[in-house]
Design brief:
Strand order of the largest sheet: 1-2-5-3-4
Oligomer: single chain
Helix content: 40-55%
Number of domains: 1
Radius of gyration: 15 Å
Number of helices: 7
CATH class: Alpha Beta
Strand content: 5-15%
Order of helices and strands: EEHEHEHEHHHH
Largest sheet: 5 strands, mixed
Number of strands: 5
Distance between the termini: 37 Å
Structural class: alpha/beta
Length: about 170
C-alpha cells in the first residue's frame, strides 16, 4: 500500500507528521484521502491530530474509526502555545497502544516543528537533525518553524536552497 506523499514517521509505529490526508489546499483529492486514511489505519494509527484552521475531515476521521483532536494553528509564528499543548498531548498519547498522526493542511512547517520538538524532548534528538530529516521526507521546514524550536534555519537548510528561495521570492 502506497503511503501519503508527504509523511515522516518521527517515531515508527508511534508518531507521524504529515500533510492533510488526501493532500492539502487545492491539490486535495477525496480518492487520495481514502487511500491515506487506509494507510494510516493499516499502520496502527488510532488518533489523528489536525492543526488546520478549519475542521475539514474531522467527521470523516471519526466515521473511519479514528479518534481526533483539533488544535487550529494559523502560522508557526503564532504556534507557541499550540506547540506546548501538543507536546503534552503527544507525550501522553504515544504512551498508549497505537500510533498518532499529526497533520497540517498544505503547509507542514508547524507539524514538522512539533514532531522535531517531541523527538528532542522524548528521545534527546538534536532539533536541527530532526528538522533536516523531516525536510528530507518532503515536509516543509521554514525559518519560522526553525525559530519556533530556537534553531538556526541555515543549520537545517542547505545554503543552495536558501539562495534559491531568496531569488524566487
Amino acid at each position: 500500500m502506497e503511503g501519503p506523499k508527504r509523511i515522516w514517521w518521527a517515531r515508527p509505529r508511534k508518531l507521524c507528521a504529515m500533510e492533510r490526508p488526501g493532500g492539502g489546499g487545492r491539490s486535495h483529492r477525496p480518492v487520495r484521502r481514502a487511500a491515506d486514511l487506509a494507510y494510516l489505519k493499516d499502520r496502527g494509527v488510532r488518533l489523528i491530530i489536525s492543526t488546520m484552521t478549519t475542521r475539514h475531515g474531522l467527521e470523516e476521521y471519526e466515521g473511519e474509526g479514528f479518534a481526533w483532536h483539533h488544535v487550529p494553528v494559523t502560522t508557526c509564528v503564532d504556534g507557541g502555545d499550540a506547540l506546548e499543548e501538543l507536546l503534552g498531548l503527544i507525550r501522553r498519547e504515544t504512551r498508549l497502544r497505537g500510533a498518532v498522526a499529526l497533520h497540517g493542511n498544505r503547509h507542514t512547517d508547524f507539524v514538522a516543528a512539533v514532531a522535531a520538538a517531541h523527538l528532542h524532548l522524548e528521545r534527546g534528538a538534536e532539533p536541527e537533525a530532526a528538522l533536516a530529516r523531516v525536510r528530507a521526507a518532503g515536509l516543509m521546514v521554514t525559518p519560522e518553524s526553525a525559530a519556533l524550536l530556537g534553531v538556526d534555519y541555515e543549520a537545517v537548510q542547505p545554503r543552495s536552497d536558501i539562495a534559491a528561495a531568496t531569488a524566487s521570492g
